[in-house]
TrEMBL record:
Keywords: Hydrolase. InterPro entries: AB_hydrolase_1, AB_hydrolase_fold, Epox_hydrolase-like. Its EC number is 3.3.2.9. GO terms for molecular function: cis-stilbene-oxide hydrolase activity. It comes from Streptomyces lividans 1326. This is Epoxide hydrolase.
Length: 286
């Protein structure tokens, strides 16, 4: 693995690049409140299959890519960061995989920059147009989205960091017994208790109002796989079902019955298998 730093418009991103140098590129976008370490279990499986992975610590998570203004965390900026990382590595297009907020960026890239996205594998989070539709009409999604209202509040970061970051630690342990090791939890907590990290990560919620005006991503034309966990309380069944209406390219929905929201860590074999299946299907037509 090569750990590199990529400068983009005054910001510097920490990026892990690994796998065969001639492998097809796979961009791995982490979610909240994680970082590129969330791909530790999945990435080696992709390398073994001949793929080359690019995993950045995204805006707000890389210490030197942490602008102060909330507006600087809007999705167009987050997507531009991802494309800038690919540009810096000389990658014209990639298979894009995103988890949680990383999936939101991945959906945006696929909808708005389809020429740069060979395939999309979205983990845990549906197309955000489908999510917002469900929030407007579905009581289940409205209930499931209550946590977002808290995360955009001014006191959210202080809440998580109080009492030795007790609530932040609890956020990671809620993944379930054995999903994250004690060492992994300790590293995540240490990362997010560093000055400014958690507040910057929460700016993703503040800048992109999931519960407000429509984001209007538009349709996705690239081959897409959406992996949904039925036990994930953040997303309603309607949002999941509605996602297919926003994908005009080849589409597959995989529902995991027992895996939690933390798919890359808890079930890396299935996640890697779905990515590989999508990549192989793409190869057959290109």
């Amino acid at each position: 693995m090569t750990a590199t730093r990529i400068g983009l418009d005054g910001l510097v991103f920490d990026v892990d690049v690994a796998g065969p140098e001639d492998g097809e590129p796979v961009l791995l976008l982490h979610g909240f409140p994680h970082n590129k370490e969330s791909w530790t279990e999945t990435a080696p499986l992709l390398h073994a299959a001949g793929l080359r992975t690019v995993a950045p610590d995204q805006r707000g998570y890389s210490p030197d890519a942490r602008p102060a203004a909330v507006a600087d965390y809007r999705l167009p900026h987050l997507a531009a960061d991802a494309l800038g990382v690919l540009d810096a590595l000389g990658v014209s297009s990639a298979h894009v995989v995103g988890h949680d907020w990383g999936a939101a960026v991945a959906w945006y890239l696929a909808a708005r920059h389809p020429g740069r996205v060979r395939t999309l594998t979205a983990l845990a989070i549906p197309h955000l147009d489908a999510y917002q539709h469900a929030y407007r009409v579905d009581e289940e999604q409205q209930h499931s989205s209550q946590y977002v209202e808290f995360l955009v509040s001014d006191g959210a970061a202080d809440h998580f960091l109080a009492d030795g970051a007790a609530q932040l630690h609890a956020w990671f342990t809620q993944a379930g017994e054995g999903v994250l090791t004690d060492a992994q939890i300790a590293r995540y907590v240490a990362t997010h208790t560093a000055a400014g990290t958690l507040d910057a990560a929460l700016n993703w919620y503040r800048a992109n109002n999931l519960l407000g005006d429509p984001l209007d991503f538009g349709p996705v034309t690239v081959p897409t796989t959406f992996v949904y966990s039925r036990t994930d309380t953040a997303v309603s069944e309607l949002a999941v079902a509605k996602t297919e209406e926003y994908v005009t390219g080849p589409y597959r929905l995989l529902t995991l019955e027992k895996t939690s929201h933390w798919q890359p860590q808890q079930d890396p074999d299935t996640v890697a298998a779905e990515i590989l299946a999508r990549v192989r299907a793409y190869r057959q037509t290109h």
